[in-house]
């Protein structure tokens, strides 16, 4: 039996619920829109938002690299040892992909400015400077074989993917990046999705960050006022 989870956050109107949906293991080349449509059939209704994990989208697109296929440089090894335990860049293979994208000079500059920022009480400078070069890469997590050593890259054309899934499902859809650190970002969405509300509704990460195998979350509105998940039709 599927049990909806009430999304109780002070910054959100009461009445939003999240329903995690389990699917078969997503594999490269899968028709993800068909998988999503089948998974949410008889669950999602017009007015809902179907949030799909960016990792599932990227894997279906083949946008990942096995860590064993990456040869980290000395810079990658040196800097990764100094990263926080939960940082993507604490893995030398992941950091090497960042270096390959942005160049060693920019990475070293960002690392130096990060140290200066920490001394001044400012955090996250490295990520601010690196921008898309680092946010486009997820480190391997050690969960859910056979992807426990896969470095997942950013999905291609998340807005287009969201529109395609919405057409197949008959409800609004979004591609989202959420984690257990209370961070969530809508990477792409179909028409009328209120991205800020969806992001805040997913801060608790109902997708899960382990082996739950629930890459889909259906967000429903059960309040009495206008549905905050969708922009009002003009």
CATH architecture level-2 label of the largest domain = 2-Layer Sandwich
Order of adjacent strands in the largest pleated sheet:
1-2-9-3-7-8
The CATH homologous superfamily of the largest domain is called CofE-like
- Spans of at least 5 consecutive residues with low confidence: none
Number of strands: 9
Number of domain modules: 2
> Roughly what fraction of the amino acids lie in strands?
15-25%
Morphology call: globular
Helix coverage percent: 25-40%
CATH fold type of the largest domain: 60s Ribosomal Protein L30, Chain: A
Q: What's the mean pLDDT score?
A: 89
Largest sheet: 6 strands, mixed
CATH top level of the largest domain is Alpha Beta
Measured distance between first and last alpha carbons = 37 Å
Order of helices and strands: EEHEHEHHHHHEEHEEHE
Q: Which structural category fits the helices and strands?
A: alpha+beta
| DSSP summary: helix tally | 9
Radius of gyration: 19 Å
Description:
This protein is α+β, with helices and mostly antiparallel strands. The chain has two domains: 5-63 and 155-221, 60s Ribosomal Protein L30, Chain: A; 65-151, no CATH class. Helix content is 34%, strand content 18%. The chain has nine helices and nine strands. It has helices at 32-40, 54-60, 74-80, 92-102, 104-119, 125-130, 132-135, 158-169, 195-201; strands at 5-6, 16-21, 49-53, 64-66, 137-138, 150-153, 172-179, 183-189, 216-221. The strands form two sheets. It has a six-stranded mixed beta sheet with strand order 1-2-9-3-7-8, sandwiched between helices. A hairpin with a 3-residue loop joins strand 7 and strand 8 (183-189). Helix 1 (32-40) crosses helix 8 (158-169) and helix 4 (92-102) packs across helix 5 (104-119). It is globular. The model has no long low-confidence stretch (mean pLDDT 89).
């Amino acid at each position: 039996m599927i049990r909806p989870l009430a999304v109780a956050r002070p910054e959100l109107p009461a009445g939003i619920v999240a329903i995690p949906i389990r699917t078969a293991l997503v594999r490269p080349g899968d028709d993800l829109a068909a998988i999503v449509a089948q998974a949410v059939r008889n669950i999602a209704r017009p007015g809902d938002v179907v949030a799909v994990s960016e990792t599932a989208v990227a894997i279906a697109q083949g946008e990942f690299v096995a860590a064993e296929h990456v040869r980290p440089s000395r810079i990658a090894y040196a800097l990764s040892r100094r990263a926080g335990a939960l940082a993507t860049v604490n893995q030398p293979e992941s950091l090497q992909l960042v270096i390959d994208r942005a160049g060693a000079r920019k990475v070293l500059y960002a690392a130096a400015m990060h140290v200066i920022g920490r001394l001044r009480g400012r955090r996250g400078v490295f990520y601010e400077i690196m921008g898309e070069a680092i946010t486009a890469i997820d480190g391997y997590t050690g969960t859910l074989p056979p992807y426990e050593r896969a470095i997942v890259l950013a999905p291609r054309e998340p807005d287009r993917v969201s529109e395609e899934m919405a057409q197949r499902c008959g409800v609004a859809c979004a591609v989202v990046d959420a984690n257990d650190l209370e961070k969530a970002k809508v990477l792409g969405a179909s028409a009328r999705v209120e991205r800020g509300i969806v992001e805040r509704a997913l801060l608790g990460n109902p997708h899960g960050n382990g082996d739950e195998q629930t890459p889909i979350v259906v967000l429903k509105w059960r309040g009495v006022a206008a549905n905050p998940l969708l922009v009002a039709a003009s």
